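User: Structure tokens for this complex, please. No commentary.
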Amino acid sequence: MTIERHARLSDVQIWGEHLHFAVEAPEIGRTARPGQFVMIKVAEGGFPLLRRPLGVHNANESGLELFFKVAGQGTEILSRKKRGDTIDLIGPLGKGFTIPPSGAGRTAYLVGGGRGIAPLYFLARELAKAGMRPLVLYGGRCLTDIPLRERFEAAGIPFLCSTDDGSFGFAGLVTELASLELEKDKPAMIYGCGPDPMMKALAGIAAKHGVPAEFSLESVMGCGIGACWGCVHRIRSESGDGWVKICEEGPVFPGERILWP
Amino acid sequence: MAVTARPVDLGVDLGFLRLRNPVLTASGTFGYGLEFEPYLDLAKLGGLVVKGLYYGPRDGNPPPRLVETASGLINAIGLQGVGVEAFARKVLPRLRRIDTPVIVNVCGADDDEYAAVVEFLDAQDGIAAYELNISCPNVKQDGACPALAPRPTFDLVKRIKAATRRPVITKLSPNVTSVVEIAQAAEEAGTDAVALVNTFLALAIDLETRRPKLGNVYGGLSGPAIKPIALRMVHQVASRLKVPVIGMGGIMTGPDALEFLMAGAAAVEVGTANFVDPDAAVRIVAGIERWCAAHGVPAVRDVIGTLETR
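Assistant:
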């Protein structure tokens, strides 16, 4: 875990309501794993006060990539950043996705809804490096809600899209698409990141098919480093059910441990 | 003419405890301390106040537990924690290796539980003092806590002073008509110091759902938004008490901390700033040192209580 006070943005892309940053932060990039996140300071001087958590979209020796949607005041301020500007970030934080050690040659489904797709790009690349066959199931409300299509295509990662309004790909929910795919092929793992109702439904589908699953939970975070106990979710453990810190023990949890509201 | 910079003496004395500098980390904002080891040298702190401990583990409030407001943060964590036994077994041995005073924030559902916590912890080495948390607004209906009235404050402080061999710092609530009256009750009961302010009972509303933004409905407001009110309360209390006052409320920078010292605080606690910058406390120490050096102040203790009001 490193604080990078002045990480330079080597590239900024704007895709509609979505932004893509390439960040020069080698210390963080070198050690980041899929599913981990960074905490970004959006303003100096106390307003907005708190850092914003963003999942790592991709990482390598020279730094990391971030992909996010303008969803509130914090991300709106970040969206005004230009190439060459610097950001102040802490990371990599949290525990990421598990890549099964004996998964080579087997399929994994990566199911993402909306902005939840961001960490799955990184995960898909790492799964491919580990010899697995990732299939990304990418859902959004409409065509403009699934802006990473071309990135997956360029990276040679197989993907299927769904839109609620049928404007692109499968017409319906991404969880319905996942159910259809599961009838054809039973993957070694299912990974999910997106809105809670999507992940809850996906957890049920994975359990029904007996496929191990992992989900990345989202929450407002005070600190991101386990100090404030603000970002909890109900999690099952050997010692009983309790409020567990998403930032520290997650954000990725095995499906069977997550108790959905 | 070149002025040779002499090192600033940052030490302060609480009477029962000497600190290498006046900056402590506030309970509930610094975990159990160890979470921050990757980001700062804990031995550079004046001291650290660990998260409030009940006797047993405690589950805390349902989420959402945090909401950000204008220059502030409302929290309703509900004092989730590991309890004294796990603290003594897992955390304290690691804190003992660090050359920094550890102050344990003590909680209780009733006076008996507060007493049981200090009795258990008195048998453990490596604790410099207790901070008696009589002021958390997030654990009972409508923010109820002993610090809202002089009598329960007096009774509890008296009981805990009799129960422990260690110094007791009483942490006060700002959610009262006269914080001075409560502080005086704590002093009469024998507290070794008072710390103020805890958070301000607050509410944030989601207009669309017509629901409170916090699972607990009300929470405690902290951060820069509360600093001027906290500063006024610290000044009022420090002007009237003989025991030392530890000031806090929205301190983000060295100059913020110096304002509290000037208002009469003998030391300060840094809270919400730790969330924004995990190394905030040591940056604040450096900021205090820079200001003193730039203003020819040889020792930071010379700043304490120097506010001129006439």
